[in-house]
Amino acid sequence: MDALYTAVATATHGREGRAISSDGKLDVQLAPPVELGGNGQGTNPEQLFAGGYAACFASALGLVGRQAKVDVSDAAVTAEVGIGKQGEGFGLKVTLRIELPESVDEATGRKLVETAHQVCPYSNATRGNIAVELVVE
Predict the structure, then answer these.
(1) What is d(CA 84, CA 104) in angstroms, rounded to the nearest whole number?
(2) Residue 92 in contact with residue 80, Cβ under 8 Å?
(3) Partner residues linked to 81 by β-bridges
């Protein structure tokens, strides 16, 4: 694959540090959530992943909607990213909740969501590695 764009970010001090993109547009203080023993006073990697996945999936859904001539411009995607023990390390799981406009019937909406799941780079990167559940609302 030839990259059309490459994002670059640097994190220091792991989950208790800071993440900064090379252009300075992303600059966040990191902290583990309370549920993982942290103070919850910063953003955590799961939140960053959830935001990126939700935005990417929404863009993929918009693309497949335009191709199918179905207006999904008012759709909303919420990504829930869970982290937990997996073997000796940790693993992730994702639930994508897709809220489609009322004008989109259930069968068409499901087909668009499934197609977007094939198009979205995050979905392609996670396929076979992370359990991803699609919930159409």
Answers:
(1) 35
(2) no
(3) 94
Amino acid letter for position 16: E
Helix 106-119 / helix 45-67 crossing angle, nearest 10 deg: 120
Tokens of 136: 């159409």
CB–CB of 54/78 below 8 Å?
yes
What pLDDT, in 10s, does the model give residues 66-116? 999 999 999 999 999 999 999 999 999 999 999 999 999 999 999 999 999
3-class SS at 86?
strand
d(CA 118, CA 28): 31
Q: What is the pLDDT of residue 60?
A: 98
- How do residues 12-32 score in pLDDT, each as one tens digit? 999 999 999 999 999 999 999
